[in-house]
Amino acid sequence: MQKIRQRPARTLPVAILDVLLAGVARVRALLRRLARLLPVPRGDRAVAAGIVAAALAVVVGTGVFVVAVLRSPDRLAPLGVAPPPSGGVDVETGDGVDGPTGSATPPASSPLPTSAPPPRAEPRNRPQRPAPPPPAPPPALAARYATEDVTLLHYTASVTISNPGPGTATGWRLTITLPRTTQSVAAVDGATASRKGTTWTFVPDQRTGRVPARGSVQVRFRVDGALIDSQPTACTIDTRPCQV
To answer: What is the pTM of this model?
Structure first.
């Protein structure tokens, strides 16, 4: 069997061109018939033929232009606007176009100009003030015990409290322990006395509360009771033993 070849389907431009050519052929045939039927002078016939030919040329030219536009619309561009180059950037969207395929590519990011940060001011070396010295500890006081005016029923004692330091000492505490509870302390001068068993505690009064630097104050009192073994068994000044 002989294989029958099928005609390819006509495109729209080809169909329009065929219609235009068929129309031109029909118009020419109609004009020839009218020329045969109507008695027209040769001069007028030539003018009419020229007008018809010009009209047909306009129709054919318009058809050719339409066909050219339909077949290649991408080759035409608006007046005054050049077609975008291959791999350029779309003006409307700002997206990159990669080659003739038209695939969008991200635009290359250009580094923005950055201004250098201002130079950091170096802190000036300020002279540091020396830290104030810690307060000096209170000077260590010393005490010396002495017995005076011994009689049959009592005796008088004195305690000299001295300050060997360079500054004034404020406040002190003198403690004397007697051998028996039957003994008592009276006629205290330069201090105020309190008792707890056989221990007597003396604190300064208004005159002896401040011991000047490298100076001293004195406390005097009387011990009443039996004189046999009546001397104090302990004497301290701010927990330090007294000198005898």
So the answer is: 0.46
184: exposed, middle or buried (Cβ count in 10 Å: 0-12, 13-18, 19+): middle
Helix (H, G, I), strand (E, B), or coil: what is residue 35?
Answer: helix
The position carrying tokens 């011990």 is 223
Please give the C-alpha separations between residue 226 and each of 112, 131, 168, 199, 233, in angstroms, as whole numbers: 108, 59, 39, 17, 15
Spell out a b/e string for 218-243, using b for 16 or more CB atoms within 10 Å of the CB, else e.
bbbbbbebeeeebebeebebbeeebe
Say if residues 231 and 178 touch (Cβ distance below 8 Å). no
What's the 3-state SS for 95-107? Answer: CEEEHHHCEEECC
Rg, C-alpha atoms of the chain:
68
Among residues 208, 209, 176, 179, the alpha carbon closest in space to that of 195 is found at: 176
CA atoms within 13 A on the CB side of 156: 8
Q: In degrees to the nearest 10, what's the CA dihedral of 28, 31, 35, 37?
A: 120
Is-contact 67 54, C-beta < 8 A? no
Q: What is the pLDDT of residues 73-82, one digit of tens each?
A: 544 444 444 5
Q: Which two tokens stand for residue 10?
A: 């006509």
152: DSSP letter: S
